[in-house]
Design goal:
This protein is mainly α. 81% of the residues lie in helices and 0% in strands.
Length: 131
């Protein structure tokens, strides 16, 4: 009986001593688990929802000088459009986004801007105002 108690105590003592050593070796094998602030921020930014990118693209588009000129020529109050754009739902932003991309691409090709681009801009401005 005494031998059984001694064996149980030895196994328990060995387990208690071996657990921290095993945990340390496992940590060294998997590499450093401590992340710096830049890595955490990069991970968070990578998970920004697509609708936020679309919303930012809409805001950038409305801030371009070309859009401001078209709105001024047509008598549209752009500050009102920007205020209305900030209240669009995620679904509405997603629906408007293809038009924003199309108009932005056309404006980047400055030599090919035609009346259709201005039509898209006016359509977008009116769509935002009406929603």
């Amino acid at each position: 009986m005494r031998t059984l108690k001694m064996l149980a105590a030895t196994l328990l003592f060995g387990t208690v001593l071996a657990a921290p050593a095993a945990a340390q070796q496992a940590g060294e094998a998997s590499g450093s688990m401590i992340l710096d602030r830049g890595a955490i921020e990069a991970a968070v930014l990578d998970h920004t929802p697509e609708v936020e990118h679309q919303r930012r693209a809409l805001g950038d588009f409305l801030g371009t000088p070309e859009v401001r000129d078209v709105a001024e020529d047509r008598g549209i109050d752009l500050s009102r459009v920007e205020a209305a754009a900030s209240t669009l739902s995620d679904e509405e932003v997603a629906a408007v986004h293809p038009l924003v991309e199309k108009a932005s691409e056309a404006m980047q090709q400055r030599n090919t801007i035609t009346i259709s681009v201005y039509t898209v801009i006016i359509f977008l401005l009116l769509l935002i105002l009406l929603t």
